[in-house]
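Reference record
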Amino acid sequence: MNYEELLEFSIAFAARLQKCGAETYRVEETIIRIVEAYGVKKVDTFVIPGCIMASLETDDGRVFSKIRRIKDCDTILDGVEKYNALCRKICYETPPLHEAKHMLNTATADVRHYNTLVYHLASFVTAAGFAIFFGGTLSDAICSGVCGLATGLCLKFMSAFHANPFFKTVVAGFILGTISHALAALELCMNADMVSIGAIMLLVPGFLFTNSMRDIIYGDTMSGVNRLVQVLIIAAAIVVGTGAAVSFSIRLFGEVNGSILVVQHSLFIECIAGMIGTFGFGLIMNIHGAGMLLCILGGAISWLVYRICSFFGFNDPTCFFIASAAASIYAEIMARVRKYPTISYLMASLVPLIPGAGIYYTMSFVAHGDVAQFWSRGTSTAAAAGALAVGVLLVSTVYRMWGVWIKRRKERAELKQTAK
């Protein structure tokens, strides 16, 4: 066995997972499982966003270590699913390393990416769907779709020149805020706020926040704190960009119809709009095949649970907690039924619960200098986001504990069978 080649292969495999947006624990477990499948029991890993470190020790005491720097990570859930399935196959079959490398390269070639046209269509659909979801009219949805399209174009353009996330978010937030207020000044939409909120959903780091909390709870503190800092930086960028756009637009166009008309849609319309927005997010996250329908259904379920809890008088954080727990249970069940990673279903199911409106209004109060309302709305938004993360963490922790219990039970049964 070429141990250095084995370690290099396992890290290369994990690197491709991380580039697709896989969780920290999944990246670490992939290295451990592959190395152990080839007969090496002493293996250590340490993973943080953008860096993978791993080492193994042979039976004769030799130690091999490698470090890999990872750049240009994205959210490509089709890649996470394909690499996760391949890891299971390699661990089960343990083919020669040269064959395993060929299988990895084949899987990489098979990872599907939607083209640029679909990405921009997804930006339009996501913004339009959530404009109605949060109380906008049909004209608001169309205008929000235009803002979402502009936001997507801006993000793609700056990504091509490797602009940092903070600057990209500031510029995109400024563009969408300015366009939404310009459309309102031209009386092409009824509510500039709903137009902006629909488009701002493309910038909200809800998934990054959830993954940061999961990493911290799982004991991956460095990785969790790293992601949490990124969340705070992006949130600050949204406030700076959209806040500057509001201030600029007020001076340029004067006060526009910000919240003149907020439509109270029926639960059915909300669910349909949420499903449309979730579909757009699914395209952006590169979800393919039948899994897309299940992801859209998960989004409808999470919002339905939220509204039921709200109907029975629960406060907002409690509603978010129960709804996110329901979304997490749904994701865990679907992952086990279809043998796919939980993250694919979880991220899509949580989309309708992302507090985009709370972030927008928090920013709006900053732009208008209303400190009291800023703190009030900001703390309620933070509480909702925290409750959402805790709901996910509770369910995922219980499932992981249950998985460990099942594994140990099988091991004890095997030992008893061997003893007989």
Observations:
- The longest strand covers residues 42-48.
- Strands lie at 42-48, 51-57, 63-69.
- The chain has 16 helices and three strands.
- The CA atoms of residues 365 and 373 lie 6 Å apart.
